[in-house]
Amino acid sequence: RKALPAPDLADHVHQGYEAPRGALEERLAALWAEVLQLPQVGRHDNFFELGGHSLLAVSLMERMRQAGLPGDVKTLFAAPSLEALARALAGQDPAPQPLAVPANLIPAGATAITPEMLPLVALSQAQIDALVATVPG
Predict the structure, then answer these.
(1) Tell me, what's the pLDDT at 1?
(2) CA distance readout (Å), 92 to 25, 42, 68, 75, 86
(3) Tens of pLDDT along 73-90?
């Protein structure tokens, strides 16, 4: 590794530089440049072609979260260009609503479980009984 030359900007694939458009693309470009350690990122550049990989993608997502931007790694893999990611994020709610988890409907000390007690799954009484039979005690 020590014998290899240090990579420079010319070693990365660029799609012909076009400046980011709009506040979201500009914010994303700044974050990409920071994470990828590049002087600039164009709107048609591809995160992975610029040297990004899964670990850097996770780092980017954390920086985006800190900047108040929505998104996840799955979105980046599906929309790897700056322009495509900005479009994908523009359709997302920047403040995701917390997941509503139903209350536990199985009372303490219950001796039987019925389908009505399981709001997150659709199981018949026979299926529940078969599962309960596999659990000792």
Answers:
(1) 74
(2) 15, 22, 12, 11, 10
(3) 999 999 999 999 999 998
